[in-house]
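Protein details
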Amino acid sequence: MSKRPRQDQTDQAAPEPRGSRRRRRTRQSLLDAALKLMAERGLEGVAINEITEQADVGFGSFYNHFPSKEAIYETLCDEVFERFADAIDAQLATLDDPAEKVSVALRHTMERARQHPDWAKFLIREGFSERAVSGGLSLRLIRDLDSGIHSGRFRDRDLLMQFLCIAGTTLSAMSTQQHLTRPASPHSLLVQARQIPTDHLGERLAETVLISLGIDAAEAAEIGRRPLPAVILHSPDKD
């Protein structure tokens, strides 16, 4: 009688080959370098050799992963706009209240911006570009605003203007959050001079936006401070 293979042996995935690991790390290094540079200078302000130097890889290695500078930019847009929006959307699908959906999306965006400054700079720079407005969080926000208006949860106002006001306020809050980490920046000096509190910016953003949508102030404050569901960003597919 033949022995049955052990369950842990049959279920265990084969280790990733060394060459694949090296290729994946190089690709990620190029993406990280491009994100840092393009967040500061945009697509047109960055050359391929600057990306490879920042990533500390050979110039020719770039073309093993991306056919052009525009291609790595498009990949970055997918990383910044689409993957994050998909991860947020997975959590929003578990919620019924449009007000809580808007709050969760805004607070998670602010938290990711706090943890990943280059990601935030790229989003701030490209936030109203055609690529950003045609997908990512923009379409999800418009969807949730429209749902809230039709359900009577939000006041029935100009949907486009509501979206633009919220998107602009969010990008401004992200920019301010970044500047506050630099003590000598104009933002920091202003809030110091005026003794403006700078804590809990994500919660305060959510509360302010919900009040603008017609939610009672006390309820908006409560919704803006509810525990956040976890959002898991899965790693990009290995190539």
